[in-house]
Amino acid sequence: MTDTARTGWWNLLPAGIRGQVDGYVLQDARLQAVRVVREVGRAHGLGLTEAQTVVHDRYLHHGDRIARTPDSPLDLESLAARAAGCPGRVLAIEAVRDGDTTHDWFVDLLAVTAEPTGEQRLVTIYRSTAVRHLGEHEDHGPLHPSAAAATRAGTALAARLSVPFHFASPDRPDDQAPRWRP
Length: 182
Description:
Blueprint: H1 3-12, H2 15-26, H3 30-41, H4 48-62, H5 76-84, E1 89-100, E2 104-114, E3 118-125, H6 127-134, H7 145-161, E4 165-167
Helix pairs in contact: 1-4, 2-3, 2-4, 3-4, 6-7
């Protein structure tokens, strides 16, 4: 899509809708912004790909003014404090891959608990969080940065808590990988 086409799509949207989309962008609510552009732009032949491109352009336009969602802390002390706040006894630390259209693949680091039985999300590790945590030029081998960061943080936390660490799919995205069981 050319710059002229992108500007044309944006200008087709009514001023009120453009304001709403910019509001979502400034709140770092990408999916809501894309949904609005797609719904309103459908009448003009705007598809999902074009809606995503228009919203991406608005992110570029607003730059540093966007209130970004803060990164989850990956330091051992913060993770241990989160685990200590879980209801029930922590039985294991588990890393689970997931993905979405906004963040690509990411990893949730979970505390698996007993009494009550369940799991508590400690952090969600996106690529950007992982790169900042690991260092931009760190070699993490064939692992996706979020998987490498989850492995490092999860292993350290599990050792601190004297529980097992489980990550069924560190080397490939698989949101259906087997989960940890006691």
